[in-house]
Amino acid sequence: MATETHRLPGSLTPNARQADMAARARAAADVAKAHAATVDAEARFPSEAFAELRKQRLLGIQVPQSLDGEGATIAEIADACYTLGQACSSTGLIYAMHQIKMACMVRHFKNHPTLERILRRIADEQLLMASSTTEGQAGGNVRSSEAAVEHDGAQITLERKATVISYAVEADGIVTTARRAADAPGNDQVLVVLLKADYTLERLQVWDTLGMRGTHSEGFTLRARAAAGQIMPEPYERIHAQTMVPFAHLLWGSVWAGIAAAAVAKAQAFVRHVVRQANGQMPPGAAHFTQAVSTLRTLRGVLASGLRSYEAILSDEKAIASLEFQATITLTKVQVSELAVTAVMASMRACGLSGYRNDTEFAIGRLLRDVLSAPLMISNDRILTNLATTSLMTPLPASISG
């Protein structure tokens, strides 16, 4: 059961608040770690970890204090994602996806009474929200929707064939993109907040993948009927640029950094073990361990810089919408995903056969399989191709600090 402190976060000093959230995240991570192997082997939702996340009241921490939440910052949430990512990749990524949708709601609900009631429910009941942004032929292009919202008086209906809705069956609600109306172009989108009673799911495809198996990212036909007030009042174009993209890249990146940190920790333990056994002599893979540590340090630096840059302009719509920021935050995703893969691969090489085997305490196979999803989530190739025109138009810096 949550303590009174968790219900009254405003009574904590900043340092105490940070320590409290970190302790709660570690408690959830301990549970997630204990079940990570079976979650992966059975490709199942990490139910034990999310039971603990609910117990620690970490699902609603981003809801404003005025609506019974804690008003957590993106930096605080990123730290939780990093901690969970070290314990169970799937748990960390699901938590990040939930918090990305929470950010879209919290930052753009504009005091709308229907959405305010939903946010209160999420904080009070610790509801888990899933995301549905891809469908049909559009694939990974989240800025284009095929299905359209249909209005029926005070109600709306929606039917969309979603190629992926992670943890949809286990979620308490789904936040989905859709065309504003039947006659609207694909990029004229809205964001719709649905609770479990508002929709049905018909499975289209199963989830059998190399890694991130516990995210349960199956495809569904989503059929919904809900109140018109459950449409977010701001156009998705604005939500996407101001919140969806920065939160996604920074929180996903924090999970990937956590996976990398877990791999580097295994490599460190292996090298220490060999040094003790060999009277101080370094193993052949020690150079790869050094590379892994260095890469992780760079990865964390890129994320920290991205978090500082975003937090500095959170209330400046013009700065967030600028080509420079949008290109930088999008390229951050490319950088951190590639660095995470490099760090885990270097850790594997540092451990050698002990890291390659699945039956040793230094096994890195699951971490490597999971982190290989990072460059594919919103494909790095798609990102780099889309940014090519912007890069051609942008002058190169004239100095190191420029």
Question: Could you describe the 3D structure shown?
Answer:
This protein is of the alpha+beta class. The protein folds into three domains: 4-127, Acyl-CoA dehydrogenase/oxidase, N-terminal domain (Butyryl-Coa Dehydrogenase, subunit A, domain 1); 130-230, Butyryl-CoA Dehydrogenase, subunit A, domain 2 (Beta Barrel); 236-393, Butyryl-CoA Dehydrogenase, subunit A, domain 3 (Up-down Bundle). Helices cover 54% and strands 13% of the residues. It is built from 14 helices and seven strands. The protein has helices spanning 4-7, 14-42, 47-55, 74-87, 89-108, 113-125, 236-277, 286-312, 317-321, 323-351, 353-356, 365-371, 380-386, 388-393; strands at residues 129-132, 150-152, 155-166, 173-179, 189-195, 199-205, 217-227. The protein has a four-stranded antiparallel sheet with strand order 2-3-7-6, with no helix packed on it. A three-stranded mixed sheet has the order 1-4-5, with helices on one face. β2 and β3 (155-166) form a beta hairpin. The longest helix has 42 residues, at 236-277.
Stretches where pLDDT falls below 50 for ≥5 residues? 1-5
> Percent range for helical residues?
40-55%
Strand runs, count? 7
The total of helices stands at 14
CATH class of the largest domain: Mainly Alpha
Strand order of the largest sheet: 2-3-7-6
The secondary-structure element order is HHHHHHEEEEEEEHHHHHHHH
Mean pLDDT: 94
Structural class based on helices, strands and sheet pairing: alpha+beta
Q: What does the radius of gyration come to?
A: 21 Å
CATH topology of the largest domain: Butyryl-CoA Dehydrogenase, subunit A, domain 3
Q: How big a fraction of the residues is strand?
A: 5-15%
Q: What's the number of domains?
A: 3
Q: Major sheet, described briefly?
A: 4 strands, antiparallel
Q: For the record, what is the CATH homologous superfamily label of the largest domain?
A: Butyryl-CoA Dehydrogenase, subunit A, domain 3
Supply the CATH architecture of the largest domain. Up-down Bundle
Distance between the termini: 51 Å
